[in-house]
Specification:
Layout lengths: L7 E3 L9 E5 L2 E4 H16 L7 E4 L4 H13 L3 E4 L5 H10 L3 E6 L14 E4 L8 H7 L5 E3 L3 E6 L9 E5 H15 L18 E4 L6 H12 L4 E3 L6 H10 L4 E5 L1 H9 L9 E4 L6 H11 L2 E8 L3 E6 L7 E3 L4 E4 L5 E4 L7 E2 L2 E5 L4 E7 L3 E4 L2 E4 H9 L6 E5 L15 E5 L5 H9 L11 E3 L13 H21 L1
Parallel strand pairs: 2-12, 4-5, 4-6, 5-9, 6-7, 11-12, 11-13, 13-14, 14-15, 26-27
Antiparallel strand pairs: 1-8, 2-3, 9-10, 15-16, 16-17, 17-22, 18-19, 19-20, 21-22, 23-24, 25-26
Length: 485
Amino acid sequence: MSDARSDSIPLVPDGNLDRVVLLDGDQRWTVADVLASAQELQESLGALPGPVKHLVNLAGRRDQFLVGLVAGILGAQVSLMPSTRSRGAIRDLLADHPNTVILHDGDQPLEPTLTACAPQVAIPPLRQTRSQAEYARQVPQIPRIPRGQLIARVFTSGTTGKPRGHDKHWGRLVANTRVAADALDVHHRRTDNAHQDRLVGIHLLGTVPSQHMYGFESLILAALCGGATLSVDQPFFPGDIAASLAALPSPRMLVTTPYHLHHLLASDCALPPCEHMLCATAPLEPRLAARAEQTLGGALQEIYGSTETGQIAVRQPTQGADWRLMEGVDLEVTASGEVIASGGHVERPVALADCIERVDARRFRLIGRLANQVNIAGKRSSIEYLNATLRAIDGVEDGLFFRPRSAGASDGQPERLAAVVRGPGLTADAIRRALRDRLDPVFLPRPLLLVDQMPVNATGKITRDALDTLLTDSNDSDHQQRDAS
């Protein structure tokens, strides 16, 4: 018979109820504060008519997201984490997951049409005024959670189509946090306990949403399971990022994306020292990494992973191009060339969406996305190369190539690519002329869309839907101009 304790892990593996887990300016909240508010929320959920099996956690604030997550864990309810809170995405979730309750920030009104779709409960705010006696009554000890309990279903961002959900279990999530802290080597206090004090002393600030797998791992889990202290802020603009960083005690870690980092470094904001930086969600240019380390003074590390696998490898771009696999994770190259990630905290074997080159058993290099290989009229290239060529043009501040949904060859006509570009002062013709000097004509984009701002989401990604909307709006504008003439 198995030992029940060996089949479970404490909700907070370090077991410290008094550890500060969240901060907001001068406000500090402990593990006990979070647990007490989570129990209060769970009582509200228990009072609802009918069973509650799933929670759609739409909280924007880190503190309330964490309370909602912990409440779901205590009640064995699965937290559904959509990459967007758009009406369509939430309605799709509710249709696929009966017995779901929507959790939200009390001061953040939801889309009105969602009010009739599912019960809604506001997440209670954290309180600091509990006495030790109240702590002892409400939170007598750290709950233990079965290793196999399903905690969350995290959805892909939709960059390649309809978002898909991927299940995350408690034991794997705790292991994920431990091996990531080891791989990043940012410990500030070590103990003999394998689950304790992994990131104690680190103060985290993130620019990515809590619901995204990267933010969930590197912010929420790092605070809950890893010992870090998490800022409730989620700044987007450079001035806000700089102010939030400056408000944090040292040592600091900025968890961000290439998009946010690029705009932060391009701004004229005064930036405080930042001992650690973490980047993910898109390829990071080595020059940008070098600028970040020179400007902020800390080491910048990059995470490789996906919603399906979680984080599985790390590198410091200024020290080399090789990625190092995290403990327990293995890559297998099949006879067909497919690369399968498995082992460690990876929930199940997953085929990677990238071409890789093995360096040795624990290291590899990324070649590019499998879906980004382009073959037009017998001419081959990659989206990565085309993007690099586009961004090298003087005056182009950002841009990317993409395949329109209807881009497949038909009626004997070859496939065409499109591009979206932010290049103040440049015309589409000027950009095409510059590209013609560097690329085969079959790769010239038709159409080439000029924008004031790239249509990024909160993680710095550009979704398939955003690109489709740009094309639709462009086509509508063209039709209106022709009609007017």
